[in-house]
Amino acid sequence: MRISPDGLRAAAADAASPAWKVIWEQSCHQGTCDPASAALLPWLASTIAGFAGDQRETPLALAGFIAVDATDADRATYANEIEALRALAADRLSEASNDPAFVDLLQAIRGLEGDELWGKELDHLNDGEIDVRCPECGEETLVELVADDLDITPGLPSELAERLHAEALSAGRGAVAVGLTRLFGQLICPECGASFDIADNLAGVSQP
Fold it and tell me: What is the mean pLDDT of the chain?
């Protein structure tokens, strides 16, 4: 990871600076962040605290990705900064600029809390779809999270699912709340008729 001091200064001075794109590219690639990027967490905490309103949203999304891929040692070293970032994300959540920003913040909070699955996978809600593979026949299916797909039985089978759903409703994000019931619902495989949990499938959990 190579980010120049000038780049960090430019990004800290302006949330819309092109320097942020460079920081993203140097920190994370194809859904995985360089563990060395954890060293940016103190800088991110102080920089984001100096921003206002929706200027905080994208940098907080980056912080979540970095935190979830940090080593246990780095998470311990930067525990105070991670908690400060989590508090900033939680504070912004109810005032997110739109549904995608709300989902990104919700995902960032999960990442900052150390959730290795939903710290990366919640933004399928923004995509509106997700690929799953039937554990019985191996058929791949593109699941629509925003459409009224009769093959999906909506559900909230866990405490986390209920919590995320409640947070979406509390913030007035009805469409996100509906998407969550589908992401945590059950799918009937259109090929073989087997029923399986979409979230467990995403997590790689085998089902009988």
Answer: 93
Q: What's the mean pLDDT in 8-32?
A: 94
What are the start-end ranges of the E strands in the chain? 28-29, 32-33, 129-133, 140-144, 152-153, 186-188, 195-197
Residues 6+ apart with CB under 8 A from 40: 3, 23, 27, 66
Q: Does residue 76 surpass a pLDDT of 50?
A: yes
pLDDT at position 206 over 50: no
Residue 38 is encoded by which pair of tokens? 């954890």
pLDDT of amino acid 208: 39
Mean pLDDT within 139-155: 85
* C-alpha to C-alpha distances, 119 to 51, 106, 111, 154, 202, nearest whole angstrom: 23, 8, 4, 22, 13
The count of other CB atoms within 10 Å of the CB of residue 147 is 11
Q: Please give the structure tokens belonging to residue 102.
A: 């709300």
Q: How far is CA 2 from CA 24, 53, 81, 88, in A?
A: 11, 29, 21, 26
Strand partners, 33: 28
What distance in Å separates the CA atoms of residue 136 and residue 148, rounded to the nearest whole number?
A: 24
Residues 187, 152: contact at Cβ < 8 Å?
A: yes
Residue 125's contacts (CB-CB under 8 Å, 6 or more residues apart) are 103, 145, 176, 179, 180, 183
pTM comes to: 0.94
pLDDT band with cut points at 50, 70 and 90 for residue 149: low
